[in-house]
Design a protein that fits this description.
Elements: E1 2-6, H1 11-22, E2 26-29, H2 40-50, E3 54-57, H3 65-70, H4 72-92, E4 97-101, H5 130-150, E5 153-159, E6 161-163, H6 176-189, E7 194-198, E8 204-205, E9 207-209, H7 210-223, E10 230-232, E11 238-239, H8 240-251, E12 256-260, E13 269-270, H9 275-281, H10 289-302
Parallel strand pairs: 1-2, 1-3, 3-4, 4-5, 5-10, 6-9, 7-12, 8-13
Antiparallel strand pairs: 8-11
Helix pairs in contact: 1-7, 2-4, 4-5, 6-8, 6-10, 8-10
The protein binds guanosine-5'-diphosphate (GDP).
């Protein structure tokens, strides 16, 4: 198949693109440097130059809490903008199959766990990234609207708390797994006696290794044909305390762990219902958290010069 991946050099794209190429597909892997997806004329040019029959649409403007709080208009503008002309041009170019990825953050902040796909739009997302989350949820509605009106086989998936190589390891705005890996690594390197981690340790998250997200996306491309979104996750909870202990052990940091309770815990328990994923794809993640954290740390140590710090 002739495939196009937007956001191909990002976190999920970096895992997905090599898999597509191994399968023998002809893949155009685009980053933000190739075409400006906010300009309709450029998108038209893109489809003229590549004529894909399948698209993985992963391009998005992402950022941490501080960026989300200080530049909400940019998150709305970019994430709605990246999708609006892109989907219309994809339709006009006859793209038959499109896979859109959004985020667990689109669910309301007080969704009970396990979070079922039906809970989407039952309340407002967490305040900290509300504009981003609503833009991404609106992008899902856009994909669904094209499917309904034009009969296009376009689908949307919601990954859980994904982690792995090529993630954002920045000190200020990373998610918890890369944030801890970075902090533990440098604490060990510096011979620090203690390390500070956020919150109380009691929140529960549902982690999935990036290669499992990519594997599920490939299966969804083959098997999933619905206007409803599908959660892609492990469906299992791990407390932040357990995660902190695992990362500490993996990195080999033996100092004291100090919990900074002034930092927010966020959503208390966030576990995704993966019944639909199991039934529709027959999929179970292959990489458990112990193996996944080790793979991620090994990658981080070996690629520290090119990791997003
Ligand atoms: P989200 O809350 O599901 O969006 O995902 P995060 O990856 O940001 O996980 C947040 C949870 O991990 C919260 O309970 C935080 O208090 C806790 N946490 C502990 N240390 C860190 C850290 O260094 N970075 C982040 N992002 N979260 C941390």
């Amino acid at each position: 198949m002739t495939m196009l991946v937007t956001g191909a050099t990002g976190f999920i794209g970096s895992s997905l693109v090599p898999k597509l190429r191994q399968m023998g597909h002809n893949v155009t892997a685009l980053s933000s440097k190739d075409y400006n997806l906010l300009e309709q004329a450029e998108i038209r040019k893109l489809f003229k130059e590549h004529s894909p029959d399948t698209v993985f649409h992963l391009a998005a403007k992402v950022g941490g809490i501080v960026a989300n709080k200080t530049t909400p208009a940019e998150f709305i503008y970019n994430n709605l903008g990246l999708n609006t002309y892109f989907l219309e041009q994809a339709r006009q170019a006859g793209v038959k199959r499109l896979v859109y990825l959004f985020c667990g953050c689109a669910y309301s902040a007080d969704s009970p766990s396990p979070i079922k796909e039906e809970y989407l739009f039952k309340g407002l997302p967490d305040q900290n990234a509300m504009y981003y989350s609503i833009a991404k949820a609106t992008n899902f509605l856009q994909v669904q609207a094209y499917r309904k009106q034009y009969g296009l086989d376009w689908i949307s998936l919601i990954p859980g708390n994904a982690y792995g190589p090529n993630d954002n390891f920045s000190d200020k705005n990373s998610h918890v797994v890369p944030g801890l890996i970075r902090r533990f690594h440098f604490a060990k390197e510096n011979g620090d006696k203690s390390i500070t981690v956020w919150g109380t340790g009691s929140p529960v998250r549902d982690f999935i290794y990036v290669d499992d997200v990519a594997a599920a996306m490939l299966l969804a491309l083959q098997k999933y044909h619905s206007d409803q979104p599908m959660n892609i996750s492990a469906g299992k909870g791990t407390t932040i305390k357990e995660l902190v202990e695992l990362v500490g052990k993996t990195v080999g940091f033996e100092g004291e762990i100090i919990w900074d309770k002034t930092k927010p815990d966020g959503h208390h328990v966030k576990i995704f219902d993966v019944t639909r994923m199991r039934e529709e794809l027959g999929f179970e993640p292959k990489v458990d958290l112990i193996a996944g954290v080790k793979k991620t740390y090994d990658w981080f140590r070996d690629n520290i010069d090119k990791a997003r710090l």
